[in-house]
């Protein structure tokens, strides 16, 4: 059936559903915070919008910030209750360590806590070998994930971040990686943990790990993420914090005053770019028979709120014949009528789907309630939405 596309000016101001649709970087209309970093970035986790950047695309060594990628790849490719064995190549790895014994076995979940709280290089290698079959195999997964996320200035050579030629990233890329990872409930829970104990099969005492990230104790609302240091990368830090329902993540590379700089960066984001509710879920669209498929919040400076432009694009006679004879009650494209495109300063910052009134609208998952068994459900939901958006955005 021929598709008829109708473009209608819309009174709503919705923004993008998935960060992969794109995000606009905040313009330099507001004076950003001063830092001592060689490179820095600040991102809104919900939207993926970079709010501040200082030489953000400069490719630099990143030390143990590498382990953000290690953790999210391991979480997505393995099971938390898997037993990870310490091999001869992982044992006594140089640099920061959990001091795991040769041949010792630990669950992946506990090893991830050791990885992110204490920056164990032995844990990084053991995890990599377990998930990827070898460190080299795991590095392939890391670089594939970087490509999938759209990290165009990053390349990984190992899972721990020890200095190596060809191993680098940027503040902007690390901000995007962190925002991606913080949407995973397991990753989010681990990096927010201040103290963790784990069974020790070789001793009468348990492992006890205190998080190296001082921001968790220094900054109100802090909930992550990772410290890093090598003699060539110098001090590196990724921190996150949540206030009033908004989560921000800050990145600095080569910063000798990182704790204070991160506090200033986060304060800047919360003050000047608060999340604004720009669309409600199932909100009727004026002068139509459609409603929004979900709501959305977006970080906006006061001076930007008049710069938003939006269009409602309806696809007539689409979806009915395609879903005929199928179980329409659970089909995420059933009732799909089109989308609302949103632009800020001429750049597309997202789209949200619209549905015919009374039709089935897929529910949004509650990731804060997700458990190991629920991660697949969230992934399935995201995959379904990607299919819907691909359906909508196709010519």
For this entry, give a set of tags.
alpha+beta, 395 residues, 5-stranded antiparallel beta sheet
Tell me the strand percentage band: 15-25%
Low-confidence stretches: 1-22, 318-330, 367-385
Number of helices: 10
Q: Write the H/E string, N to C.
A: EEEHEEHHHHHEEHEEEHEEEEHEEH
- Cα separation of the termini: 14 Å
Which outline best applies? globular
Structural class determined from secondary elements: alpha+beta
Mean pLDDT: 84
Strand order of the largest sheet: 1-14-15-16-12
The biggest sheet amounts to: 5 strands, antiparallel
Q: Using DSSP, what is the number of strands? A: 16
Describe the structure.
This protein has helices spanning 66-77, 108-118, 121-132, 135-149, 171-182, 185-191, 215-218, 258-272, 320-323, 375-393, and strands spanning 4-9, 39-44, 50-54, 83-85, 105-107, 195-198, 207-210, 222-230, 234-243, 246-253, 275-279, 290-292, 296-299, 308-316, 336-344, 347-356. It has ten helices and 16 strands. The strands form five sheets. Strands 1-14-15-16-12 form a five-stranded antiparallel beta sheet. It has a five-stranded antiparallel beta sheet with strand order 3-2-10-9-8, sandwiched between helices. The chain has 395 residues and is an alpha+beta fold. Helix 1 packs antiparallel against helix 2 and helix 3 packs across helix 4 (135-149). A hairpin with a 2-residue loop joins strand 9 (234-243) and strand 10 (246-253). The longest helix has 19 residues, at 375-393.
């Amino acid at each position: 059936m021929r598709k008829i596309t109708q473009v209608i000016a819309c009174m709503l101001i919705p923004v993008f559903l998935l960060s992969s649709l794109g995000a606009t970087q905040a313009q330099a209309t507001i004076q950003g915070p001063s830092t001592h970093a060689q490179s820095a970035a600040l991102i809104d986790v919900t939207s993926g919008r970079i709010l501040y950047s200082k030489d953000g695309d400069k490719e630099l060594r990143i030390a143990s910030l590498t382990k953000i990628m290690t953790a999210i790849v391991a979480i997505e490719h393995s099971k938390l209750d898997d037993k990870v064995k310490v091999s001869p190549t992982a044992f006594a790895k140089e640099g920061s360590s959990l001091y795991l014994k040769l041949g010792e076995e630990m669950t992946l979940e506990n090893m991830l806590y050791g990885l992110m709280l204490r920056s164990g290089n032995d844990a990084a290698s053991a995890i990599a070998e377990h998930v990827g079959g070898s460190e080299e195999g795991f590095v392939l997964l890391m670089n594939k994930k970087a490509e999938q996320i759209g990290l165009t200035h990053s390349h990984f050579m190992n899972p721990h971040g020890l200095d190596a030629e060809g191993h680098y990233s940027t503040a902007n890329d690390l901000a995007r990686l962190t925002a991606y990872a913080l949407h995973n409930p397991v990753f989010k829970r681990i990096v927010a943990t201040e103290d963790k104990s784990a069974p020790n099969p070789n001793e009468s005492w348990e492992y006890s790990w205190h998080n190296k990230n001082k921001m968790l104790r220094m900054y109100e609302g802090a909930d992550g993420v990772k410290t890093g240091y090598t003699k060539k990368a110098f001090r590196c830090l990724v921190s996150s914090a949540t206030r009033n329902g908004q989560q921000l993540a800050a990145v600095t590379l080569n910063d000798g005053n990182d704790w204070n700089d991160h506090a200033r960066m986060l304060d800047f984001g919360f003050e000047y770019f608060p999340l604004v509710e720009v669309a409600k879920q199932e909100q009727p669209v004026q002068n139509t028979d459609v409603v929004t498929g979900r709501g959305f919040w977006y970080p906006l400076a006061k001076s930007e709120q008049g710069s938003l432009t939006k269009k409602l694009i309806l696809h007539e006679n689409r979806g009915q014949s395609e879903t005929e004879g199928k179980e329409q009650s659970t089909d995420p494209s059933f009732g799909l009528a089109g989308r609302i495109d949103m632009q800020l300063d001429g750049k597309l910052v997202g789209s949200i789907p619209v549905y015919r009134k009374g039709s089935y609208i897929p529910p949004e998952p509650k990731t804060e309630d997700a458990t190991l068994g629920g991660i697949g459900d969230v992934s399935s939901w995201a995959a379904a939405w990607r299919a819907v958006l691909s359906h909508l955005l196709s010519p």
